[in-house]
Amino acid sequence: MQGQSQQQAYDRGITIFSPDGRLYQVEYAREAVKRGTASVGIRAEDGVVLAADKRARSPLMEPASIEKLHKADDHVGVASAGHVADARQLIDFARRQAQVNRLRYGEAMGIETLTKTITDHIQQYTQIGGARPFGVALIVGGIENGEPRLFETDPSGTPYEWQALSIGSDRSDLRDYLEAEYEEGISTDEAVGLALDTLARTNDDGLTPEGVGVATITVDDEQYAEVSAEELEATLAERDLLASDDEDDESADADEE
């Protein structure tokens, strides 16, 4: 009984390490990320592509209300997986930091600097008693000094830089697919196709323009832009990924997007 009570104490205390050096609440936050629908980020030669599975839980839900892709600044986009409410808080924090940097220094904030500022904020919530970690992972992509950059944030507050990555459900399978299919030097258009191919592996029935979101930031204009539903439908049809009209959209997780 004593061992069980000690385990329970480690389980509940965010500021308490277990005897083997683990923070259980941080690990639970990572599990929350795994329950969210998948998001993908790909760094191309001339830009960055962010894509997200936005399948609705019900046909009565407005697709536009599902928030998975966000504009943090003109040159920065963010995709999320995990608790949407947590993602919104971090996105608002990132937007404030980006604007403060513009006002203070008169220039756009670097992608790496912004990512590390976000992860510093996340890390604080792994040390504060009475608060829980953020149950969300983010993909932060954009253009820095004319070069595409792509980063991931972890619920522990650790930043990672990637050429291509996935977060959310089926992360391992999607990452294996990206490792096999990704090639350095691909164009943004090719990266959009690869991102859709990757997301399609989580849905055997195919994808719909309303059930997926794609955004790009290119070196040419350094502007975040979401791909329209018409363009997505054309690309999905071209790659034979378009779901049949008579198939109902599958529901996503009840609590996470």
UniProtKB/TrEMBL annotation:
The formation of the proteasomal ATPase PAN-20S proteasome complex, via the docking of the C-termini of PAN into the intersubunit pockets in the alpha-rings, triggers opening of the gate for substrate entry. Interconversion between the open-gate and close-gate conformations leads to a dynamic regulation of the 20S proteasome proteolysis activity. One of its GO terms (molecular function) is endopeptidase activity. It is found in: Cytoplasm. Gene3D superfamilies: Glutamine Phosphoribosylpyrophosphate, subunit 1, domain 1 (3.60.20.10). Its main location: cytoplasm. Residues 10-32 form the Proteasome alpha-type subunits domain. It holds the Pfam family Proteasome. Signal peptide: none annotated. Keywords: Cytoplasm, Hydrolase, Proteasome. SUPFAM superfamilies: N-terminal nucleophile aminohydrolases (Ntn hydrolases) (SSF56235). InterPro entries: Ntn_hydrolases_N, Proteasome_alpha, Proteasome_alpha-type, Proteasome_asu_arc, Proteasome_asu_N, Proteasome_sua/b. One of its GO terms (cellular component) is proteasome core complex, alpha-subunit complex. One of its GO terms (biological process) is proteasomal protein catabolic process. CDD domains: proteasome_alpha_archeal. Belongs to the peptidase T1A family. Component of the proteasome core, a large protease complex with broad specificity involved in protein degradation. The 20S proteasome core is composed of 14 alpha and 14 beta subunits that assemble into four stacked heptameric rings, resulting in a barrel-shaped structure. The two inner rings, each composed of seven catalytic beta subunits, are sandwiched by two outer rings, each composed of seven alpha subunits. The catalytic chamber with the active sites is on the inside of the barrel. Has a gated structure, the ends of the cylinder being occluded by the N-termini of the alpha-subunits. Is capped at one or both ends by the proteasome regulatory ATPase, PAN. The 20S proteasome core is composed of 14 alpha and 14 beta subunits that assemble into four stacked heptameric rings, resulting in a barrel-shaped structure. The two inner rings, each composed of seven catalytic beta subunits, are sandwiched by two outer rings, each composed of seven alpha subunits. H.volcanii produces at least 2 types of 20S proteasomes: an alpha1-beta proteasome and a proteasome containing all three subunits (alpha1, alpha2, and beta) that appears to be asymmetrical with homo-oligomeric alpha1 and alpha2 rings positioned on separate ends. This is Proteasome subunit alpha. The gene is psmA.
